[in-house]
């Protein structure tokens, strides 16, 4: 094997797509999936590649520095693609400390371990931090986030991700660690945990449950198909300039209510329901506290400098996503038993 790459959070939604892409595209790399398997981590996401000769899974909680150091000593990684995180904004509002532990302390533990292992011998080494557009705060009805936009996080989740980004820069400035950051917009696609808007709505339409839209539904997000995010990470990890950051987005803005209506239309067609059936489930509920009005990414840097562009339109990506959920009802059943029920009741039952 020519290189060993750690992909943290590789059992999660985006991480599993990054692991699959790297395992299949780079058979000469050893890919080590570093994941604690929290409620969001699921090895079922990787069933198709788990027997690949260049793939290893290692259960590690990045909050624990001893576990992190042991994994670094065991595998001696040349590169780290860091996705492990607490990722859901609503959970960050009820349990902010979990986000500080994993997203801030966990990231610093990984940075320390890389610094210790590489000991200033940086040629061929890279620490790629996968971050979010939420670090930039909220936009009004116009404008875009660029790589120069000032950080202005609002939720505990985005504050923890902004903090982790600052630590990445601090380790570059202070120790010359070879880092790179990507800040991406909202992802959707297969294996998305049904706490997030799109998979939650698909799950609820399948089960004929109310579709909870926060506030007036006019909040706006820029959606990107998860496979295109994985392609962007591959591109930046291999071709990006050390020390730089790259925004990743789909130039694909949707107000939540319009997106939910499009989803209802596609679901009705695929399920053979009369038009308008799923729309009747739409229910406006109590707003998310501190809800950011709009995110929109200017992705011209990654497009112009590295030649990355999304490969599917939103309508195609959404259709592929719905097809995946309809073909993988067992996956959906597995992840929505147990703790999920309690989460769902706490989050929605008082407002629906
Ligand atoms: P996810 O919640 O689906 O997966 C997170 C993964 O991290 C899980 O496999 C989980 O088991 C693992 N994990 C959590 N805590 C851990 C710990 N202490 N130690 C080791 N592993 C741990 O998240 P996602 O949506 O796939 O997001 C992945 C990354 O991409 C995150 O860093 C997130 O901030 C970032 N991001 C996500 C989006 C999005 O739309 N989902 C957009 C931009 C950036
Ligand atoms: O922008 C990138 C971020 O996108 C990532 O960094 C986060 O990890 C990811 O979770 C996502 O954050 P959002 O808060 O934008 O995603 P979520 O799917 O939770 O919500 C999308 C929009 O839909 C948001 O405006 C809130 C709204 N919403 C969400 C849920 C779960 C509802 O109206 N109803 C809901 O039940």
From TrEMBL:
Top-rank taxon: Bacteria
Keyword NAD in record: yes
Residue ranges annotated for the NAD(P)-binding domain, each copy included: 6-319
EC nos: 4.2.1.46
Class of the enzyme per the UniProt entry, highest EC level: lyase
Gene3D superfamilies attached to this UniProt entry: NAD(P)-binding Rossmann-like Domain (3.40.50.720), UDP-galactose 4-epimerase, domain 1 (3.90.25.10)
SUPFAM superfamilies: NAD(P)-binding Rossmann-fold domains (SSF51735)
Keyword field contains Lyase: yes
GO molecular function, one term: dTDP-glucose 4,6-dehydratase activity
InterPro entries: dTDP_Gluc_deHydtase, NAD(P)-bd_dom, NAD(P)-bd_dom_sf
Catalytic activity entry: dTDP-alpha-D-glucose = dTDP-4-dehydro-6-deoxy-alpha-D-glucose + H2O
Alphabetic keyword roster: Lyase, NAD
Cofactor(s) recorded in Swiss-Prot or TrEMBL: NAD(+)
Pfam families: GDP_Man_Dehyd (PF16363)
Family: Belongs to the NAD(P)-dependent epimerase/dehydratase family. dTDP-glucose dehydratase subfamily.
Descriptive protein name: dTDP-glucose 4,6-dehydratase
Designated gene of the protein: rfbB
